[in-house]
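Hello forum,

I keep getting stuck at the same step: I have a sequence, I want structure tokens, and every attempt I make locally crashes halfway through. Rather than fight my setup again tonight, could one of you with a working pipeline run this one for me? It's a single chain of 298 residues.
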Amino acid sequence: MLGQALLIAGFAPLVAGLIKRSKSRLQNRRGPGLFQLYRDLLKLFSKDSVVSTTTSWIFVVTPFIYLAAALAAAALTSLFAYFSPVFTSRFVDLFMLLYLFALGRFFLALASLDAGSAFGGMGGSREMFISVMVEPALLLVLLSVALRSHSTGLTAMAEAAGNNPLDLSAIFAATAFFIVLIAETGRIPVDNPDTHLELTMVHEGMVLEYSGRWLGMIVWASAIKQLVMIILFVTLFLPRLSADWPLVLQIAVLGAYVLGTAVTLALVETLTNKMRLFKVPGFLAVAGLLALLAIVAQ
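Reply #2:
Ran it on my machine without issues. Output:
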């Protein structure tokens, strides 16, 4: 599980760089390189953090908790167990994964209020507003897969979901999860990770008061969380190869799935615009409705 977390943490900036690079190419721009986020993280980790005198211990511990929650979520994904049952663990449970996501979000929202910044409070309130709709939709989608596998273990869910990916229920669930993936990772049309405009920013508003290595920890944790969500989408909803195929081929197909999902996210961002905040509930309601249809279709 530790090796899995380190592997995901190491490749997370690369996947984030691929999304930015693909988005730039689709918009006919040169854009940053694939490894730009690695350079940004090295620069941030080499700098000290500037802390406001109005902050408390919450502001200090939040980057560590946010990064630890992201690493724990990476350790609990069924990535290695996707290839071999030897790596199956009873701790790989969907409820534990949801609690880890909620833990990081909760402390980041608290830290945004702790600094006393108007932008931070605005970003934190928007994040909580969106999370109220994201978490039920995400839970319904995962439960639709859990009902099919008769287990809340992510490994059992991946085995049951990958056997019949073209089933109507699976298509509904996959579409709903992709919508939740966009919202949970703060992508367009729900949020714009590349802006600092006060009228549009959500996640960026919460971290405006952070700098140096603490900001680097939050940026790195966000990239890890994004890759974890992509891996969940790939392992739970996309067709998997037979266990009789060579392991190298299975790893190559999984990597192609991850890269294809990242490019699809960039394509969605290119084809859509940032929607108004009060239109987000309707967007996420579609995910909830599709998740309910996935449950009924079983």
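The CA atoms of residues 66 and 105 lie 8 Å apart. If your local run keeps crashing, start a new thread with the error log.
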